[in-house]
Specification:
Length: 72
């Protein structure tokens, strides 16, 4: 994937060859929109402060670390 949240020319071409021009374009557009939405969610993400005393944070920390380590 390119750094501009879209598929590379080679990826688009491979989709077009294997699933057809129209379907390949549609799939590439969906992937691009999803990548843009994910990027927007990352930019607008806020930290949540737990208000319940003694709440477990371990599961939430693991999930947030996993999400932060993802690359798109």
């Amino acid at each position: 994937m390119s750094t501009q949240l879209g598929l590379s020319y080679n990826a688009r071409k491979a989709l077009s060859v294997h699933v057809g021009e129209a379907a390949g374009t549609e799939i590439a557009n969906v992937i691009q929109r999803m990548a843009a939405q994910i990027e927007e969610l990352r930019r607008s993400k806020v930290n949540v402060t737990p208000v319940v005393p003694g709440a477990q944070h371990e599961d939430q920390d693991h999930v947030s670390q996993t999400i932060e380590s993802e690359t798109f």
